[in-house]
């Protein structure tokens, strides 16, 4: 066999795992893990991304799985160790594991991957909490939004408008990319809200109030960019998946990452939720140092209801992930070594 044939054979062997993984995805990725229904496009894209990344990482770690059906628990343990060494958050690791558990049902190995806590000595490394422990907002981390926006505007006008929309209304990244400002205002309630309907999580459409001049200014800017009723502020030539990648690349280019500035694009959504809490209660939210005794309990509930509606969630308790919890903050301050802080 000559050198050309050797290279061709090596190349086809190298690509074999991708071919097999694509076959499995084509057959299963639209199926819900438990219910007899089809999953959302977002879930399908996430399964694609996570699985390809995991099998690529396994190859880099020395596990040449040409057929993904041969995945074993030892491979997952190697991945988990790798993720911990990379410093991935507990939430990211849990999310990756969740996708791999679904994958295991496709290859007839359900229950192969156990709770992450069974694989580590330090349980806190993999234990996800839904209560914000630190302030993830841009303001809380000393980031000057207008200064960053000026640089991003000069580089990509559409990215700049998306940042404004996220800050003004607390939209998710996908919701901002898909946002149709003129249509959203037309479908709003008596011009006092916008209607968010595309790019939402789990298809939960919602009205978000318009209650300040900054929001009106942002809508005017977004409408000038969109021009027509059904036009969005994303990139017309890109699919949603491509657009998500583009905004992520732009954020990285300008240092809007945990590593560089200590914040992410999602921090603007946190900022909006924090402002809702303070507007309703007159006090900063717990993650910003607000104290339980300073807040009217009824106003606390009202603020959290408004946050839940604006954020597009179904559960009131999810607001803890943005605003924190007075209970958690009390435990923090009363813990040994923190008494005098």
Task: Return the average pLDDT rounded to an integer.
Answer: 89
Terminal CA distance: 73 Å
Query: How many DSSP helices?
Result: 14
Give the percentage of residues in beta strands.
under 5%
Helix content: 40-55%
Total beta-strand segments = 2
Structural class: mainly alpha
Break the fold down into its secondary structure elements and pairings.
Elements: H1 3-28, H2 41-60, H3 73-86, H4 90-106, H5 145-155, H6 157-169, H7 173-178, H8 181-186, E1 193-196, E2 206-209, H9 213-226, H10 240-253, H11 267-281, H12 297-311, H13 320-323, H14 326-334
Helix pairs in contact: 1-2, 2-4, 5-6, 6-9, 6-11, 11-12
How would you sum up this structure, described in words?
- The protein is an all-alpha fold.
- It folds into 2 domains: 3-125; 145-260, no CATH class.
- It is built from 14 helices and 2 strands; from the N terminus they run ααααααααββαααααα.
- The protein has helices at residues 3-28, 41-60, 73-86, 90-106, 145-155, 157-169, 173-178, 181-186, 213-226, 240-253, 267-281, 297-311, 320-323, 326-334; strands at residues 193-196, 206-209.
- It has a two-stranded antiparallel ribbon with strand order 1-2.
- Helix 1 (3-28) packs antiparallel against helix 2, helix 5 (145-155) runs antiparallel to helix 6 (157-169) and helix 6 (157-169) runs antiparallel to helix 9 (213-226).
């Amino acid at each position: 066999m000559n050198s050309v044939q050797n290279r061709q054979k090596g190349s086809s062997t190298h690509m074999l795992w991708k071919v097999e993984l694509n076959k499995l995805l084509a057959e299963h990725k639209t199926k819900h893990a438990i219910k007899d229904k089809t999953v959302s496009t977002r879930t399908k894209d996430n399964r694609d991304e996570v699985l390809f990344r995991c099998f690529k990482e396994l190859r880099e770690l020395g596990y040449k799985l040409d057929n993904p059906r041969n995945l074993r628990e030892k491979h997952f343990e190697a991945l988990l160790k790798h993720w911990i060494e990379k410093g991935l958050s507990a939430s990211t690791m849990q999310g990756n594991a969740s996708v791999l558990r679904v994958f295991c049902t496709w290859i007839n190995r359900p229950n192969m991957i156990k709770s992450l806590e069974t694989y580590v000595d330090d349980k806190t490394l993999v234990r996800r909490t839904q209560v914000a422990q630190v302030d993830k907002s841009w303001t809380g981390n000393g980031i000057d939004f207008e200064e960053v926006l000026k640089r991003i505007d000069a580089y990509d006008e559409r990215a700049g408008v998306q940042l404004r929309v996220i800050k003004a209304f607390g939209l998710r990244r996908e919701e901002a990319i898909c946002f149709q400002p003129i249509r959203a205002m037309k479908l709003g309630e008596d011009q006092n809200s916008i209607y968010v309907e595309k790019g939402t999580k789990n298809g939960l459409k919602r009205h978000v109030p318009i209650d300040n001049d900054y929001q009106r200014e942002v809508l005017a800017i977004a409408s000038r960019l969109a021009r027509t009723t059904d036009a969005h502020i994303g990139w017309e030539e890109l699919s949603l998946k491509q657009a998500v990648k583009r905004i992520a690349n732009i954020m990285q280019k300008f240092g809007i990452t945990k590593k560089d500035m200590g914040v992410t694009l999602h921090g603007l959504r946190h900022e909006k939720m924090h402002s809702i809490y303070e507007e309703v209660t007159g006090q900063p939210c717990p993650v910003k140092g607000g104290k339980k005794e300073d807040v009217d309990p009824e106003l606390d509930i009202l603020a959290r209801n408004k946050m839940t509606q604006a954020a597009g969630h179904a559960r009131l308790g999810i607001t803890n992930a943005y605003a924190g919890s007075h209970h958690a903050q009390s435990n923090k301050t009363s813990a040994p070594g923190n008494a005098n802080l």
